[in-house]
Design a protein that fits this description.
Helix content: 55-70%
Number of strands: 0
Number of helices: 19
Shape: elongated
Order of helices and strands: HHHHHHHHHHHHHHHHHHH
Largest sheet: none
Structural class: mainly alpha
Length: 416
């Protein structure tokens, strides 16, 4: 690939969300914005090879994309309330022709925060929120998103079309929500980003345990959120949690692609730079004295990161953090994680009792990790018949081939 091509690819990843969010604000249309930006990238691919890369590639692309957008609106002869905005843009860009753009920045506002809240609007389904966020802010193609979530491309395309139509028909506002609803809406945004990360960190289906592209994209989106709302400690907590978990990626499977549990991982493979950054972020978040869900999870991950060996893990501290997490975010899954920590700090009998208590409501019946955790403790207690039954239950609910292979291995070990 030529130097101009490499630069264009880098700019695409760095600037796509920033540029398209502004185009959507100006046009009121996701489709017009995407088409205009794609045309701008096509112009860049041709022009930069001939005339060289401009000093400010992002500004060049933004200005060309605006021109393409105005051309599209003129062609369609759109007559809307946005005509004053269009006239203003035409006047502002009139002195410049497309191939001799200004080297100085044309100052466009950063509209990415508007786009984040629009993509994660509560009127949209969670599947639509994820797809639209990856498509617009991430710049992933429909094919890439479909491949990441293992669904047909036609299914993902329909999902995106329905989401865009919902925004248009329901007149979902393209704006940052009011202070009264900001906290709740921001929590939904973080949930979408963490869902994307988790799908990459522990793939629901397929033959790979990890999908690095989704992990990397979720981390990039979380960085954007921290950049735009740096005074929100939970944003920092979310990014910290992702970095600390992602730091273990090279150790989570062996050379044969088999799952390696946390206690058996080769910790020399953990990424120290990600760990250092993650720990700095969670410390910074705690100094803001507004402790939340993601900060506590990041603190737990940091304790794992600090331990040089599995035996050095401070399980009593982890247990206390999970107890605090249950206080602010009571759920069966948090209770399950707390029970697992107690098992490591106070013994398998006590942990098993808490696990069964967490599952008593039936809310975890279809959660394979509940059965897998229970099976592990039963195995450690040498209650092998019960452990085998629990492993079979976990195996029937798991849909990832790597996790299924691990569960079969454990089952075979205790049944011969």
């Amino acid at each position: 690939m030529s130097q101009a091509g490499e630069t264009l690819e880098q700019v695409f990843r760095a600037e796509y969300g920033r540029i398209i969010s502004t185009l959507i604000r100006l046009s009121g249309s996701f489709d017009l914005a995407e088409d205009s930006l794609q045309e701008a990238f096509a112009s860049a691919a041709a022009n930069w090879e001939t005339n060289g890369t401009p000093r400010n590639p992002g500004a060049w692309l933004t200005t060309v994309a605006h021109r393409k957008l105005l051309d599209s609106i003129r062609r369609e002869k759109t007559k809307t309330e946005k005509e004053p905005d269009i006239a203003y843009e035409e006047e502002r860009l009139r002195p410049y022709d497309e191939l001799a753009l200004p080297e100085d920045d044309v100052r466009y506002p950063d509209d990415r925060l508007r786009l984040i809240f629009t993509c994660c609007h509560p009127s949209l389904s969670r599947e639509a929120q994820v797809a639209l966020t990856l498509r617009t802010l991430g710049g992933l193609t429909t094919t890439e998103i479909a491949r990441a979530f293992l669904v047909p491309e036609s299914t993902m395309a329909q999902r995106l079309v329905r989401a865009k139509n919902k925004i248009r028909v329901a007149k979902i506002p393209y704006e940052v929500p009011s202070l009264e609803s900001l906290s709740e809406r921001l929590a939904a945004v973080r949930a979408v980003m963490y869902l994307i990360f988790n799908e990459g960190y522990s793939a629901t289906t397929g033959g790979s345990l990890v999908r690095l592209d989704l992990c990397a994209e979720a981390i990039r989106l979380a960085r954007i959120l921290c950049e735009l709302l740096a005074d929100e400690p939970e944003n920092l907590g979310l990014l910290s949690l992702m970095l600390l978990q992602h730091s273990r990626r090279e150790a989570r499977a062996n050379e044969h692609g088999e799952l390696v549990t946390l206690e058996d991982q080769d910790r020399s493979l953990w990424n120290r730079s990600l760990i250092d950054e993650g720990m700095q972020l969670v410390e910074r978040a705690f100094r803001m004295r507004r402790v939340g869900n993601y900060q506590l999870q990041a603190a737990i991950a940091s304790i794992h990161a600090e331990a040089k060996t599995a035996d050095e893990t401070d399980w009593p501290q982890i247990s206390l953090l999970y107890k605090e997490l249950m206080r602010i975010n009571s759920s069966a899954i948090v209770a399950l994680n707390h029970a697992a920590a107690v098992a490591m700090s106070e013994g398998s009998e006590r942990g098993l009792s808490l696990i069964e208590e967490a599952g008593a409501s039936g809310k975890l019946d279809n959660f394979y990790l509940y059965h897998a955790s229970r099976a592990d403790l039963l195995r450690r207690l040498n209650r092998l018949t019960e452990a085998a039954t629990a492993y079979k239950a976990a195996l029937s609910l798991s849909t990832n081939q790597v996790e299924q292979q691990y569960l079969r291995k454990r089952l075979n070990e205790i049944t011969g």
